[in-house]
Amino acid sequence: MFRLPSITQNSQPPSIPSAEPTAADQILPINLATALYLSNARPLVIAFAQASVEEAAARLRGAQVLWLPNLNVGASYYRHLGTDQSTNGDVIVDDKTAVGAGGGATFNFALTDAIFRPLADRQELAARRLDLQAARNDALMEVAVAYFYVQQARGTLAGTLDAVAKGEVLVQRITGLAIGLAPPNEVDRAKALLFDLKQQAAVDRGNWRVASARLARLLRLNPGVVVVPLEPPHLQVDMFSPAARVADLVPVGLMNRPELASQRAVVQAAMDRVRQEQFRPFIPNVLVDGAGPGGALNGSVFGGGPDGTSQLYGGRFDMDAGLIWTLNNLGAGNRALVHQRMAQEQTASIAFANMQDQVAQEVVQAHAQLEAAAIQLQNAMTAVKEAAITYRGNLLGISETLAVGDVLRLINRPQEADAALQQLNRAYGIYYVAVNGYNIAQFRLYRALGFPARGVVCDHPVGQVQPVDTSRPPQMAPDCPHLLSQPCP
């Protein structure tokens, strides 16, 4: 089913010169192994997922310490002027002051929360960690796709430049034909074709720069560089056989995909929250406080007296402890909360079922794309071979004549050589599109089956990781601190 990734080269690649950047381009040499290595750390989607993991971990730590008291230190001041009521009920007019300073420990939490919140938050943390793995898998595929589009653009440019070189030779051959063998419009037709090919070469070079900018954005590199892959543009990455049975692949995806495991954890967290609300009316809240402002001071130095003076000071300790059972809104509020949590659990379960269907769909689609890409690649290789043979034959044919009576005629008309060159140029473009499609299909199936990114980044890399310049212009924001510097610990 899955085999160690390997990079191979087609047995019948076009024997044409590689496309090179211009002298004005700022180049960035890089290979596939290095791009995939960077994909496991630098993309912002991974930094975002890592921040979500840290947030969930902080919530879990907070839930785990609900049992611990709050520690308070402070001072209080009380001033009364005017009428008051004595303990026997008489209304009196007095003027008094009280001050205090001290501290203490207070509790005020629901036992239900202390029991069930850590359970739910632990599941949420597990879900976020699985989301981080899914983000790495997504980044791997996105970077691989961007890298192969760079390869496609570079290969297509090489094919067009080869066609331009052949077009220049063709124009010279037709121009040099003896008078009467080819009418003047044949030369004009060949020149028009040559200009079209040069126009296409300009477009292809622009596409190479566009694809480079996309890869640079994903890897957070200098956006102005032109990425120059170290491998030839006809490289193939083989991880899965196109002949694999899709019925064997779908269960692998359902078992491995981190998105499914994450959603399963979300369902479990929702179930814990349902139980939390179901038990809330039967499990008390714990309350321990003192006599200070807001119940904050248990032990203090206390002083007071009449007429705004504090005459007597002494130690004071106050504590009020209790267990409180609460029915919110005569129980109707609790019932509403239970129904709310149950609805959230149902929503999470539906999302899990939908995710299962999506995973199965993605596996089937990726397998179908790989199967079709393999056939297209074989056909494209054959088409290039046949188109090259046809062009060479037609080019030779316009240099040979055949006597028909007293008249010499060309074995092949120049326009047939023009058409053969156009066909060869199209074959080049289709071929590099097919190579790109095959490689992308391999990585889409790898992601669809849920294999971890580190499998082709760290455990079984597709080549030797090379040093690469990751500096960016000073005007751009620095790297996010969450971005990892060592993707393969």
The span between the termini is: 27 Å
Order of helices and strands: EEHHEEHHEEHHEEEEHEEHH
* Topology, number of strands: 12
- Main sheet overview: 6 strands, antiparallel
- In round numbers, the mean pLDDT is 88
CATH superfamily: Outer membrane efflux proteins (OEP)
Q: Work out the strand percent.
A: 15-25%
Radius of gyration, in angstroms, nearest whole number: 38 Å
Number of domain units: 1
Number of helices: 9
Helix content: 55-70%
CATH topology, anyone?
Outer membrane efflux proteins (OEP)
Give start-end ranges of low-pLDDT stretches. none
CATH class categorisation: Mainly Alpha
- The dominant shape is elongated
CATH architecture: Up-down Bundle
Structural class: alpha+beta
Question: How does this structure look, described?
Answer:
There is one protein chain. The model has no long low-confidence stretch (mean pLDDT 88). Helix content is 55%, strand content 19%. The chain contains nine helices and twelve strands. The chain has helices spanning 32-39, 44-64, 111-175, 184-219, 246-256, 258-279, 332-397, 414-448, 454-459; strands at 2-9, 26-30, 70-85, 91-110, 225-229, 235-240, 285-289, 299-306, 312-317, 320-324, 401-404, 407-410. The chain has 489 residues and is of the alpha+beta class. It is elongated and about 135 Å long. A hairpin with a 5-residue loop joins strand 8 and strand 9. Helix 1 (32-39) runs antiparallel to helix 3, helix 3 packs antiparallel against helix 6 (258-279) and helix 6 (258-279) packs antiparallel against helix 7 (332-397).
